[in-house]
Amino acid sequence: MNRKFPALGLATVLTLAGCGGNLGSDDSGSTAAYPERAITLLIGQDAGGSTDLIGRALADPASTDLGQPLTVQNRPGANGAVAAKELAAAKPDGYTLMVFVGSLAYITPLAVPADQAVDINGYEVVTGISQDDFVLIANPKTGFTTVKDIVDAKRPITFATTGVGTGSQLTQTLLFAQAGVNATAVPFNGGAPALTAVLGGQVDVAAVQLGEAKEQIEAGKATPIVTFATERPSYMPDTPTAAEAGYTVPVQQSRAVVAPKGTPKEVVDRLRTSFQKAFAAQAYRDFNDQRLLTANEVDGTALLQQWNDALKTYRDLVAQHEIDLAGK
What we know:
Elements: E1 39-43, H1 50-66, E2 70-74, H2 81-89, E3 96-101, H3 102-106, E4 123-138, H4 147-152, E5 157-161, H5 167-179, E6 183-187, H6 191-199, E7 205-209, H7 210-218, E8 223-227, E9 252-260, H8 265-280, H9 282-290, E10 294-295, H10 300-320
Parallel strand pairs: 1-2, 1-3, 5-6, 5-7
Antiparallel strand pairs: 3-9, 4-7, 4-8, 4-9, 4-10
Helix pairs in contact: 1-8
């Protein structure tokens, strides 16, 4: 499953001197024996959602290598902005981290006032994690099987989103703006309630992540209309991409592990090494396959380039189609 973001591959794992978590630093500061206690891993979304599951899948193997617990704490709200604010205020010592969703960095800024936008460049990126695509699904009772069916319905459409400033919102808003469909967004707090709204007939359609929709699609409870991947996903070869249907909607979700700005480089390097070992664990690789995730285990420099480029791309598309995400 190809992605919009370039496949830059894994950065070289840094070999750290010493053993038992000792960085071999010449100074006697707190980084020398890092970590000496449990590390908090903030999740800016509800428990049970994709980001939460990814964070928990990584926490155990990373903890094993670090020799200290990685304690997951959910801080849902504002597409992760609540957790990001807490992270920014935390001491930059490597004991508070966050699984940061890309949409908070490159979509939410298009939907909120500038003073409320979160700038990913104000954090230390430990590592990229993975990427996943969105799929537009419909309740079978609507009779919609293609975007043309939605256009030809010639009636107002309701679509569920996973919140304001999310990839779910942007994919559908761009699609319907280009298709000339009179569509109204109904925001929910995450993919699970948005999916439930489609299944229950509360809305006509929703864009959710592939891994979240797979089970319901296979059960015939949700009809896939288009995916927003660059190529058709292997498990849905008969579902066209939005590009194949004639629409420009290059929107994906991405995630990274992030630390407060000013976290020492030795600590960031130590953490990155542990997460790379977690990425290599068979249980985590199986988790990626089951959730239809594509690895994006790049270093901080590459991740920042990806996300800053995505922000520019989406800003240009929103301006081109005169879209107001704050009002959608």
